Fold each of these.
Amino acid sequence: MITLFRFLSILPLWLLHGLGWLLGWGVFFLSGVYRRRFLDNAHQAGYGRARWMGAVGQAGRLAVELPRLWLGRAVTIHWDGDLFVEAALNQGRGIVFLTPHMGSFEITAQAYAQRFGARQPMTVLFRPARKPWLRAFVATARARPGLHAVPTTMSGVKQLLKALRQGQSVGLLPDQVPPEGLGVWAPFFGRQAYTMTLSARLAQQTGAVVLVAWGERLPWGRGYKVHVKPLAEELPADATQAATRINHAMEQLIAECPQQYLWGYARYKQPRQEIS
């Protein structure tokens, strides 16, 4: 598997995205469970075929581009909203980046590390792979100057808090279903979804600036554009209200490009047991 990853990492981005498009549609047609969840989630959000169809191939591109992003040479990155990052860094309060399962969320953290990491590093929260060999490989592949990855454990959460208190940045996927006890039920596209409270608590406990961001996958392998904007409204102290407000912000972000949202993600699943 590692040999395959290394081979894929040397291929041009346009070719990887072409292979990913085929993979996305192949999985869509062959897996009834995945296809039903994909369509149910898109319909729940109120999107018709014209708005969700492009996301089928984009889901495959998300998977196939990873070897290039982890192991290959640098890709072209454009920015939209980098002035918001500059302004937040100038305040020295730390930044909480909220990025949904949309576009290339891997490139969002890499782009920050490349552009701002020397000034203030970023720490991102990720769920480790179940297989030990893959866990070690991914951790090594993700590591780069200005970017630290920590696991979804209490130790990882403590590292996020420490980073913010030092004026650094952290990145989370706020639409990722947290373990039981670490979230609340809040509406997401009109349906109750178990939603993490961590993102709001990090900002409230440290006074950090909250920015929403996503990495747009440009056509024909031309690279990526990272979009950043401030959270439209301040987060209330109440956990459910804060989670509802964050979900609404993610809905607005997804509405900008539903063709690149990961509709196949099991957003409405029951939470697993609490992390240790």
Amino acid sequence: MDRIDIHIEVTPVSFDELAKRNHSAEKSESIRERVIKARSVQNDRYLNHGIHCNAQMGSRLLKEVCEIDDAGSELLKTAMKKLNLSARAYDRILKVARTIADLDAADQIATHHLAEAIQYRSLDRENWAG
């Protein structure tokens, strides 16, 4: 499972939730624009490295591109211990956090980007799916 970057449990949505008309979700067009910008940033970032996206980073480049502050480091350390994550999962979390930051048009990985990336490791949690 640690070879998969993002894995989450998707729970069923009730008909009542689906039928609500006044939910405010981000429009697909807006999401598309953010993705295009993030991919452009990644293409530019890796222009001289022979890769084109965060998922392709090696360990050396990961340390350069995915710097986190002390608070982020503490958060990741806690998650690693509590979820008993592997070194591979550590790298994957940083890559996903970098992508989340890119989608947020952020130069640095913030703690909330890291927290979101950790959240996407739900299959690493004990007692997943009940």
Amino acid sequence: MTYHCKMNRRKFLRTLVALGTAYGASPLIRGTWAQAGERARVRPGSLAELEAVVATSQGKGPVANTNAVIDVLGGMARFVSRGNFVAVKPNIAWNRSPAQGANTNPEVVATVVRACLQAGARQVVVFDRPCEDSRRTYRRSGIAEAAEAAGARVEHVRAGDFLETRIPKGKSLTSWPFHRYAFEADVFVNIAAAKDHNEAILTMAMKNLMGIMGGERGDIHRDIHQKLADASTVIQPDLNIIDATRIMVAHGPQGTSPDDLRSVDTVIASVNQVTADAYAAQSLPFENLPAGGLFGYIKAAGEMGLGETDLSRMTERKA
């Protein structure tokens, strides 16, 4: 079975208008899509020295592992300054419970929220554009409750939140609407779940960024590997965290049974989503990967110079 998360533009707009109304927010539709021109998010130079650094923690549980990798990278205060607006994008794509492993572990999300607030963030917003109804995925995943309890504001996306953005270095994708928080937040944190994927092979940090993409996402699945690499030329989170508390090794991205999951009790972090994905693909016990562990979008991004894909060139810092 193939899962494209495909939704045509008219249906997407209608759904977001309904959600905006249901949650008391203006849908802010400006024509079809707001025009963002050349806007692009690039990591600040202060984090450049961490581009090839990967922090890992294993065997401590999701909360301690998450705190550990943040500390290894210098603490959340290295990323978040007092008064910052922080946008946190987990995987909340599926109407599945935490035990089913289809979304980011809610404890990992809550830990990141608390760390941001403790570093002085004035506001932390948690959001995603799910593949299923967000009112159900946010609730059943446990992420909405956990994030709010930690002090975040949980938002459902609206049509007017997406900004058409040129991708000058794109080879297959030259323009696409992205969620405005990818550009407007002072700090953008990407928290992915490590999973098998029937088309992309794996979904991790780079693939998780499809949740900030508007438009007909089914179109992204055509030449998906190059398009994900293209998107990474303009969307560069300040911090990428890969939740590998449980990894899904088969029948992704939703899974079919507990047999699809492996408990590895690991969290991985890097400022660079390509580096994070390359490390995770070659280090976690996934099945049926190409020889060497590298594939598709990771290779494409590496060839475009967007991150380190060679383990021997990475600096691994274990907590």
Amino acid sequence: MQVTKKAIVLLSGGIDSSTTLAITKDLGFSVFALTFNYGQIHHAELQSAKMMARQIGVAQHLIFKLDLANLVSSSLTGDSEIPKMRSMGNILSEIPSTYVPGRNLVFLSIALSWAESIGSYDIFIGANSIDYSGYPDCRPEFIDAFQKCANLATKVGIEGKNVAIHAPLISMSKGEIIKKGVELGIDFSLSHSCYDPDSNGRACGVCDSCTLRKKGFKEAGVKDPTDYFA
């Protein structure tokens, strides 16, 4: 009897991670979704991650408590104002205050530990280097370097059972990602992108992430289901 391969998917509840989750499921993996409660100032994305995991279907969804807010300086953990009303040129060329130092490095390291523990050799991350907010840990160079490190740092790597770090969206535009998600049946009204939602979880409409989200739906020719308050 063929055993279904297991995969860890980093799931934030946004467009990219949700599409990555659906792609992984479509490839036939038994999916183990990993979401981080890392000290971000709002938890709307955690609720979206739960809903996406239910909609797409996973073997297990783990929300991992990790208080990076005590260690890092980022506007996502409340150290400064969320940038808003920035031009697309600035969004695509500058590293903003929403950058969380070492976030993907830490997240992937924990995913690697879980993967080795459950016998998984595949980790999926929704990193994107086209329509993104300038984060250095979303680049192909970082993904490649982490994969090399993963196979030097693990028992399975030393034994020749290499772990693969998959970033299927790395070279896709936000519009292409949304089209792929729609093709795979994702209900994007369940997803959350905003960096500064109101108390009801409605998106601000003017932070970098909302700007990229709006741009993506427009490019995809798909109606944006987001409830914006601005």
